[in-house]
Specification:
The complex is a heterodimer of chains A (325) and B (233). Chain A has 325 residues and is mostly helical. Helix content of chain A is 62%, strand content 11%. Chain A is built from 11 helices and 5 strands; from the N terminus they run ααααββαααααββαβα.
Chain lengths: 325, 233
């Protein structure tokens, strides 16, 4: 059995990884400043409060990435023979539960404010000897909180794809959509300004819906990963072609009559088993399997470990469900 | 491209609103209705902030309200009642303002719209002339008016409370408001037991009225501060 290799990333990916970490530090610092600024100008606007909570929540994925990617890259130990890649999946699960719960809570708050016809009060603040309505300060604070984050999100997205990092991807995706949150909150604040008390709670409801949706999608993804779902592409739209490539690679060996492959995802790493039906008259089978393991692993840097087991025939559900051709 | 269009859209909304818009407005139109009309004010007695007699409503807050009403050309229609009753009516838009010597931190702060503090006062220990300060409340006899909520805090610090109605003639350290000490020429100590941020209450979400009142109050903060000691003499 081959041990999980300490060498995680090929050189090009290592650069991406360093860059992703740097971007996540920037995200963290920037969002923190936005959260503080928004807290300073927060009145009783529920839309503002929800946008603020959303920004506060979007601190979590960068923290998970920064902390867990360190842990996940530790080499396997006696205690954790498969390495620690799943630290990321576990953190992802925890964070998505929090995200979902928060989204539902905010949704409930917005709905109950609408039902009770609560009129949001936005007071004033003394600034340079003038009494300024807080709503006027909320609008630029919201712009500040959103615009740069959107660009950081767009920079992180291709890195997440290349590093096959789901937390980073979810984070970048949420950042990218941040302008929608901010504009919804701005519409809410402007609605209050124009004397439509319900605009605020309605905008808050929209934002909390998007938080809830993010939470649900992340939770689903994290759960399915922990349940050893077959690898899917990073945007979760289709099965990852890597499974079929490994399958084809094995079938291409003249001494392999039939083969079956199953892979699972641990963090950004792929682990799995292959079953082959070798020809009857092979006498150096262990050597051939050893070489095949190396060649299969060379297909993709994400393939950390694959065990090839010779079997007399291929059966089972997975085989039945596999799309042929 | 979607990001760019999003950013442009946001800026457009912002720009179009800054141009020619009187924000904020009242959802229930209170300020517009009261201007050159009637300002319905609820008052609950709480001297020196509000004093209610058969003939008139006076006190610091009542005078402020009178001046505010003059500024917007409104006639004040007073309703005397208990704080709970008045604030409930305010929360349902049946009154336009409530004054009752309210302070920030009232349990009503989420149901009605409170202004910012127009004056801040403190309950603290003061010393009559020639009375020395032992430096600590522990075991010390303190004169205080019965029912003053700050007494509980003084007790927790070990003070022995002696009830007295008239603190101005005291011969021992007293627990009183900072402006009272000033009026009686008592020396304030650094032992502050409680701070009070005095506010008025407007109907919830009536942001135009609140902002107008806030601007009015902000201009008068110093006057209020200066007028307070006169109330204790």
């Amino acid at each position: 059995m081959k041990q999980s290799v300490a060498f995680e990333f090929p050189d090009a990916r290592r650069e991406d990884y360093t860059r992703a970490r740097r971007l996540e530090w920037w995200t963290l610092a920037y969002l923190l400043s936005a959260v503080v600024l928004m807290a300073l100008v927060m009145g009783q606007s529920q839309a503002m409060r929800t946008a603020w909570a959303e920004d506060l929540l979007s601190l979590v994925p960068p923290i998970i990435f920064l902390v867990c990617s360190r842990i996940a890259l530790r080499p396997p130990s006696q205690r954790f023979r498969y390495g620690l890649h799943r630290a990321m999946s576990a953190a992802h699960l925890g964070a998505s539960v929090a995200l979902l719960a928060m989204g539902l809570f905010l949704l409930y708050e917005a709905a109950s404010k609408l039902v009770r016809a609560e009129h949001p009060t936005i007071g004033a603040m003394e600034m340079f000897g003038h009494t300024v309505w807080l709503g006027w300060l909320m609008l630029p604070a919201l712009v500040y909180s959103a615009v740069p984050v959107v660009f950081i999100g767009r920079m992180k997205l291709p890195l997440a794809e290349r590093l096959y990092d789901k937390v980073l991807y979810a984070d970048a995706d949420m950042n990218k959509a941040d302008w929608m949150t901010a504009s919804a909150a701005m519409v809410g604040v402007i609605g209050i300004g124009l004397g439509y008390w319900w605009a605020d709670a309605a905008a808050a409801g929209l934002i909390s819906l998007s938080v809830t949706r993010d939470g649900y999608r992340n939770l689903r993804h994290a759960l399915f990963d922990l349940m050893d779902q077959s690898p899917r592409t990073i945007d979760n739209t289709r099965p990852d072609p890597i499974v079929e490539r490994v399958h084809q690679k094995l079938l291409a060996y003249p001494w392999v009559m039939d083969a079956d492959v199953r892979l699972r995802v641990e963090g950004h790493a792929l682990y799995g088993d292959a079953f082959i039906v070798p020809q009857q008259d092979i006498n150096d089978l262990p050597d051939r399997i050893g070489r095949a393991v190396e060649e299969v692993r060379a297909l993709d840097w994400r393939l950390h470990e694959i065990a090839i087991t010779p079997v007399p025939c291929i059966t089972g559900d997975a085989e039945r469900d596999r799309p042929k051709g | 491209m979607r990001v760019i269009s999003g950013a442009v859209w946001m800026l457009l909304v912002l720009a179009s609103l800054i141009v020619g818009c009187d924000m904020p407005r009242d959802p229930e139109g209170t300020l517009r209705r009261a201007t050159d009309g009637v300002l319905r004010v609820g008052v609950s007695a709480n001297p020196p902030w509000t004093k209610v007699t058969d003939k008139a409503v006076t006190g610091i807050e009542a005078e402020l309200v009178d001046a505010f009403a003059r500024e917007i050309g409104a006639r004040v229609e007073w309703t005397v009642g208990t704080e709970t009753e008045l604030l409930q009516a305010l929360a349902r838009f049946e009154l336009d303002l409530v004054i009752a010597g309210l302070t920030r931190g009232t349990p009503w702060q989420r149901q009605v719209a409170l202004t910012r503090a127009y004056v801040e006062t403190a309950s603290l220990i003061g010393l009559p002339p020639e009375v020395p300060w032992p430096g600590s409340l522990n075991g010390q006899e303190i004169l205080a008016r019965p029912g003053d909520p700050a007494i509980a805090r003084a007790r927790r610090r070990g003070a022995r409370i002696v009830s007295a109605r008239d603190l101005a003639a005291a011969d021992r350290p007293v627990l009183a408001a900072d402006w009272e000490l000033q009026a009686w020429d008592f020396a304030p100590t650094g032992t502050i037991l409680e701070q009070h941020a005095h506010v008025m209450a407007a109907p919830p979400g009536e942001n135009a009225l609140l902002l107008r009142l806030q601007r009015f109050l902000n201009e008068r903060q110093n006057d209020v501060r200066a007028a307070l000691p006169g109330m204790a003499r």
